[in-house]
Design goal:
eight-stranded mixed sheet, alpha+beta
């Protein structure tokens, strides 16, 4: 009995030492959360970020720093994802289609990979981006942005209007068309 409890203690210590961990990928228990008055199938208001997203600088896949403030004034979809997450893989084609459709209207889709926080880092993201023919910018999320945006599950997709206000939050893969419907909502204001 002592060995089992001791082993459990070591396991818990290892989990704590490993740093931030994400809940398993969400594929079936999806929900959109949006502020009151936003026409989405949401039931709860979106959680207010602890810090503004555009205040961050993150590395691109070549390691160059990119200031998120470069996209100030654009409608913005920010997708937190990982290469090891099956529902994240299923989102990519829809996000590519949304980006191609609305890019001419100023929409920016950003893929923020959490593989640096939990995973193999950029070495796994580059081949993933090529394999899935991702057409939108990909940046490497760090602990600070994950914490500031309250990302506990992946995929998590955030929708910001031109004024930088969070208008919707989708946790999980969602049903086909939910990402596109939330994207359309960015052009209603």
């Amino acid at each position: 009995m002592r060995i089992s409890i001791w082993g459990l203690g070591i396991g818990l210590a290892a989990l704590v030492a490993a740093g931030p961990a994400f809940s398993p990928c969400i594929g079936g228990e999806d929900r959109i959360i949006a502020p009151a008055g936003v026409p989405t199938p949401a039931l709860e208001p979106a959680a207010k970020p602890k810090r503004k997203l555009l205040s961050f600088t993150l590395a691109d896949l070549q390691g160059r720093p990119v200031k998120l403030s470069a996209w100030h004034g654009h409608p913005l979809i920010v997708d937190f994802w990982a290469t090891w997450c099956p529902p994240c893989r299923k989102e990519v084609p829809e996000l590519n289609a949304i980006y191609r459709k609305y890019r001419s209207k100023g929409l920016v889709v950003l893929g923020l990979s959490v593989d640096k926080v939990q995973g193999d880092g950029v070495k796994s993201v580059r081949p993933f981006a090529q394999e899935f023919k991702i057409s939108y910018p990909i940046l490497m999320a760090d602990d600070a942005v994950v914490d500031a945006m309250d990302v506990d599950n992946i995929p998590t997709t955030l929708f910001f209007n031109r004024k930088g206000k969070l208008t919707a939050r989708l946790e999980g893969r969602g049903k086909s068309g939910e990402l596109a419907a939330a994207a359309q909502g960015l052009f209603r204001d």
